[in-house]
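Morning!

This is the sequence you dropped in the shared folder:
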Amino acid sequence: MVKRATLQLDKIPTFEDAKALDNSDVQNQVIASALRGQLEETVGNHQAAVPTCICLNLEDLKCFEPVDCQYERWGVIFRNALAIQPSNPAFPTHSGLTVLMGSPKSGFLEASFLYPVNCVSAYVTSSQRLVLSAYDRDRQLLAQTVLPVANLANSDSALSPNTLLTVTANNIHSVTFCAFDGQFTLDDFHFCS
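The structure's back. Tokens below.
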């Protein structure tokens, strides 16, 4: 069971049980690799169409590799991101072994899109309240999603680890993940046009 947290600008956050990004939600999705030339089509009509949704395959990244332009050909550039394979059981992965975390500045990670997107999501485990914010090309706030409390594994949190956070708005040019004075990990980073 996945808990999905959504907040559009001034709305109150809601949590609902949902199947996250399953085949019924995504019509044309690919898993994008950091390695050149690798692409796995997971859903869609098998035509040579441009995918509408990209899910980043983090497994090709080396542990402790700074992540910035590895996914540029897929339309996204990261700032202040590091690939890790968590050894702390409080930060389990959602899938695979590799996740992203904010580093060297802890508690912050940014993704900028070469072409505007309309939806961004990731599974998040955080030691503090975390805010996912979406911005337009002029850095004006479009939408926000809030993880209101820490959701570490084996804690007394009301939220389980790897809570799906999603922001949806027209013409998203960048998103930021910010856990004030905290640590967090991201897994299964998706974006859709």
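Headline: DSSP finds no helices and 14 strands in the chain.

More detail when I'm at my desk.
O.
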